[in-house]
């Protein structure tokens, strides 16, 4: 698997991919301008994208990460997330944060990479989205906040 990951401007962010991770284009646009967007390509095909926002001098938040459905379960999401983890470790980040639903493959995905639950944002999905969001037929209500803390020995 050959994967090229590079930063792109918010204008060039692949909105159709980002909408797979966050169903609100308005919300994506609201955080895209103040964030860094990375795209992952295999050959000439963009297979994934993610958006990361600074939360202070040494804390960053992964706002969204998505892989095109035709390329899911191929290791691209894992490679992209690991690249982001390494990138922010190398720029001196103290921690990387992410918010996700309270169940499903996304939660396990982040936990496999060392993220740990640090808080719960109750009713986040019902208070911040006009339409209910369902995952595997179950409505999402609360957001789990997860944190990956870097250590000097390479967390």
How would you characterize the overall build of this protein?
It is a single chain. This protein is an alpha+beta fold. The chain has a single domain (4-149), classed as 3-Layer(aba) Sandwich (Aminopeptidase), CATH 3.40.630. The protein is 28% helix and 36% strand. It is built from 5 helices and 9 strands, in the order βααβββαβαβαβββ. The chain has helices at residues 15-21, 25-32, 76-90, 105-112, 124-128; strands at residues 4-8, 35-42, 45-54, 59-67, 95-101, 116-121, 134-135, 138-139, 143-149. The strands form 2 sheets. It has a 7-stranded mixed sheet with strand order 1-2-3-4-5-9-6, sandwiched between helices. β2 (35-42) and β3 (45-54) form a beta hairpin. The model has no long low-confidence stretch (mean pLDDT 93). One of its GO terms (molecular function) is acyltransferase activity.
